[in-house]
Amino acid sequence: MPSAETLERFIGRVEQNAHAEALEEFYTADASMQENQSPPRVGRDAHVANERRVLSKARTLVSKCVRPVFVNGDKVVIRWIFEFEWLDGTVTRMEELAYQRWESERVAEETFFYDPAQRVPRKPHD
Question: How do 27-35 and 106-113 pair as beta strands?
Answer without folding.
Answer: parallel
